[in-house]
Design brief:
- By secondary structure, the protein is mostly beta strands.
- It contains two helices and eleven strands; from the N terminus they run E-E-E-H-E-E-E-E-E-E-E-E-H.
- The chain has a single domain, classed as glutathione-dependent formaldehyde- activating enzyme (gfa).
- It is about 10% helix and about 35% strand.
- The strands form two sheets. It has an eight-stranded mixed beta sheet with strand order 6-7-8-9-4-3-10-11.
- Strand 7 and strand 8 form a beta hairpin.
- It starts with 9 loop residues before the first strand and ends with a helix.
């Protein structure tokens, strides 16, 4: 399976259009997360993520609010008006941002390269991901996975 990178720059917005975003670099990797938290926040079987270099992502209009399960580790950013889940930052990791790719103007390029938290996935849920993890891949595995994704993109 080939992973087609998006044409850049690419803009997008939340459901109501109050929060606008832009990506200017290709993602480092793409993923589907099957954890019950993502299931509940997305009202779906899994959430989709394009892990972007921080310098390749910007909120170009509007402000976000932190929502979802609030804690010291994950900062889930939502539109304050329509409550669309726009992106997630992981505290202490300033190098990347997890963007919800379906908010981009053309999400047709997106395919999850890996799936995480499959121990919590719904029995009928499936993705075309090439790599599957019962939990999250280790930080030591990420460079190898990102290199494999880049080689196929």
């Amino acid at each position: 399976m080939t992973y087609n990178p998006p044409e850049l720059p690419m803009s997008g917005h939340c459901r109501c259009g109050q929060v606008k975003i832009e990506i200017t670099t290709p993602p480092l990797i793409t993923a589907a997360c099957h954890c019950t938290g993502c299931q509940r926040m997305s009202s779906s079987a899994f959430s989709l993520t394009a892990m972007m270099p921080a310098e390749g992502f910007a909120v170009t209009d509007g402000e976000t609010v932190v929502g979802g399960l609030k804690g010291p580790q994950l900062q889930h950013h939502f539109c304050p008006e329509c409550m669309s889940w726009v992106f997630t930052c992981i505290e202490g990791i300033d190098d990347f941002v997890n963007v919800r790719p379906t908010l981009l103007s053309d999400p047709s390029w997106f395919k999850p390269f890996m799936e995480t938290m499959t121990a919590e996935k719904l029995p009928w849920a499936s993705t075309p991901a090439k790599h599957s993890f019962e939990g999250f891949p280790s930080m030591e595995d990420l460079p190898r996975l990102m290199a494999a994704y880049a080689a196929e993109a």
